[in-house]
Design a protein that fits this description.
The chain has 172 residues and is mainly alpha-helical. The protein folds into two domains: 90 residues, Serine Threonine Protein Phosphatase 5, Tetratricopeptide repeat (Alpha Horseshoe), CATH 1.25.40.10; 74 residues, Serine Threonine Protein Phosphatase 5, Tetratricopeptide repeat (Alpha Horseshoe), CATH 1.25.40.10. Helices cover 76% and strands 0% of the residues. The chain has eight helices and no strands. Helix 1 packs antiparallel against helix 2.
Length: 172
């Protein structure tokens, strides 16, 4: 067999392996999302961990791993995952919002406020960010600013009024 044929075969095999890995990564993400919807959080984390092993810079795998960890109240681990998501996609407002939730759960309110403000830089018309920002401001004793944030959430989504009495951060 000539060297050129051997090179073509090797390159062809590498392309096939790459395509298989891309499909495997995609399937693991879909599986993880399905498990997350079923509230199977430990299994969700495993799926996203496997997806990360295939594609380390997958901001969505890191993000949804963080969401599953948040739902299990594993806030420090969630924060680390969300930080990784942001490292790979710095303008992903959902990661910034949920990073704020993890920090809020850890009672690190000043840092949480910074995360919500960062999320608003990328998506200023998302009611849940404004709502969560209001909760953090209230926890910081900044009630007038909290009211402004709540008002903004209601302006964006008027039906949120029924939820404002709960005063607990809302993940998404």
């Amino acid at each position: 067999m000539s060297d050129s044929i051997l090179i073509i075969l090797i390159v062809s095999l590498l392309i096939i392996v790459y395509v298989v890995q891309v499909e495997r990564h995609k399937n693991l993400l879909q599986r993880g999302l399905f498990l997350l919807d079923l509230d199977c959080h430990e299994e969700t984390i495993i799926s996203f961990k496997k997806a990360i092993q295939i594609q380390y810079n997958s901001y969505l795998a890191w993000y949804y791993r963080g969401i599953a960890l948040l739902k299990l109240d594993r806030n420090k681990e969630a924060l680390a995952s969300l930080d990784k998501s942001i490292e790979f996609q710095s303008d992903y407002y959902k990661a910034w919002n949920n990073r704020g939730l993890a920090l809020c759960n850890l009672e690190r309110y000043g840092e949480a406020l910074n995360s919500f403000n960062k999320a608003l830089q990328f998506k200023s018309n998302y009611h849940e960010i404004w709502y969560n920002r209001g909760i953090v401001l209230a926890n910081l004793g900044r009630y007038e600013e909290a009211d402004i944030s709540y008002d903004k959430a209601v302006e964006i989504r008027p039906d949120i009024v029924k939820h404002l009495g709960l005063l607990s951060p809302q993940p998404f």
